[in-house]
Amino acid sequence: MVSVFKISEHIIIIALYRRKYVFQTCVIYFVTNKQKISRVIYESISQYI
Predict the structure, then answer these.
(1) pLDDT > 90: percent of the chain
(2) Comparing 42 with 21, which gets the higher pLDDT?
(3) Separation between Cα atoms, residue 30 and residue 17, nearest integer Å
(4) For the chain, how many structural domains are there in total?
(5) What is the spatial distance between Cα 36 and Cα 34, in angstroms, rounded to a whole number?
(6) Are 17 and 25 in contact (CB under 8 A)?
(7) DSSP code string of 1-49
(8) If you average pLDDT over residues 7-32, what whole number do you get?
């Protein structure tokens, strides 16, 4: 079940990206990879401080 979910997840991301729904793709990526994204956001914010 988990592998099927992961595959469908990647298909959704690819489909949204191909349709150039970049914002929706980022939202899905944010939801599925919260730690990774929050770390990237933190690093980008800390550059401006």
Answers:
(1) 0
(2) 42
(3) 14
(4) 1
(5) 6
(6) yes
(7) -HHHHHHHHHHHHHHHHHTT-HHHHHHHHHHHTHHHHHHHHHHHHHHH-
(8) 68
C-alpha distances out from residue 3 to 6, 8, 32, 48, Å? 5, 9, 14, 39
CB contact at 8 A, 28 and 12: yes
For residue 27, the model assigns a pLDDT of: 67
pTM score, whole prediction: 0.29
The parent domain of residue 18 ranges over: 2-48
Distance CA 7, CA 22 (A): 19
Q: Which amino acid is at 12?
A: I
